[in-house]
Amino acid sequence: MKKKYLEVALSLLFILIAVLLYGSADTVNQAVSKASTDSTSTYVNTLAIVLGLVASVELVLSILSHPTTIEFTKDPRRFFALIILLIAYVWGMEYIGFILATLLFLPVTMRMMGYRNWVKSLIISAAITLFVYLLFQVGFEILLPEPTVLEGVLS
Amino acid sequence: MILLDAMQAVMSVDVLLAVVVGTISGIVIGGIPGLTATMAVALLIPITFSFSPLIGLAIMGGVYAGAMYGGSIPAILLSTPGTPAAAATALEGYPLTKQGKGGLALKVSVVASFIGGTFSVIVLLAIAPVLANFALKFGPAEYFLLALMGLTGVVSVATGGLAKGILSGLIGLIIALIGTNPMTGMTRYDFGIVELYEGVSFMPALIGMFSISQMLALTGERNIAKSDVDLKKIKREKLPKGIWPFIGYGTAVGTIVGIIPGEGATIAAFLSYNIAKAKSKMKHLFGKGNPEGIAAAEAGNNACVGGSLVPLLTLGVPGNTVSAALMGGLMIQGLIPGPELFTKHGVITYGFILSLFLANVVFLLTGLFFAPYFAKIAKVPSSILVAAISVFAVVGSYSINNSMFDVWLMLIFAFTGFFLDKLGYSLSAIILGMILGPIAENGFTQAMTISAGDSSIFFESTIAKVLWVIIVVLLAQPLFTHYKNRRQRIKAMRME
Question: Do B181 and A94 touch (CB under 8 A)?
Answer without folding.
Answer: no
